[in-house]
Amino acid sequence: MTITQDSVAEPVPPYDAFARACPSRTTLEHVMGRWGGLTLSALHEGSFRFNELRRRVDGVSEKMLSQTLQALERDGLVHREAQPTNPPRVDYELTALGREVADRLLAVVHFVESRMDEVLTARARYDETRGTR
């Protein structure tokens, strides 16, 4: 534990994502990668069947979405429920932990979306000065 000037102990987190062997790195990859972040954000809207989710996350392949959902389910962020119907029906939704993560992700998503004019201006300026694009 770390002691502050007020002699109040602050707990030290047991995990450090900056450490090479920290298991949180894998979860961060799942959550913060393009498809993981978009999948979690989409599922924040509610339960989806696989193909509905694939349409919502425009551009993701069936294989990538399947791998992403499996990783997020393994991390405890997504719940997969298979209905015993013919044909089989599978629904995906966020767990309580997944909803907390998605809440935080969506704050970033909305912030970035709201500032895209500035980002696009910065990109154009960068490309102009570097002679790219």
From TrEMBL:
<keyword id="KW-0238">DNA-binding</keyword>
<keyword id="KW-0804">Transcription</keyword>
<keyword id="KW-0805">Transcription regulation</keyword>
<protein>
    <submittedName>
        <fullName>HxlR family transcriptional regulator</fullName>
    </submittedName>
</protein>
<feature type="domain" description="HTH hxlR-type">
    <location>
        <begin position="22"/>
        <end position="120"/>
    </location>
</feature>
<dbReference type="Pfam" id="PF01638">
    <property type="entry name" value="HxlR"/>
</dbReference>
<dbReference type="InterPro" id="IPR002577">
    <property type="entry name" value="HTH_HxlR"/>
</dbReference>
<dbReference type="InterPro" id="IPR036390">
    <property type="entry name" value="WH_DNA-bd_sf"/>
</dbReference>
<dbReference type="InterPro" id="IPR036388">
    <property type="entry name" value="WH-like_DNA-bd_sf"/>
</dbReference>
<dbReference type="GO" id="GO:0003677">
    <property type="term" value="F:DNA binding"/>
</dbReference>
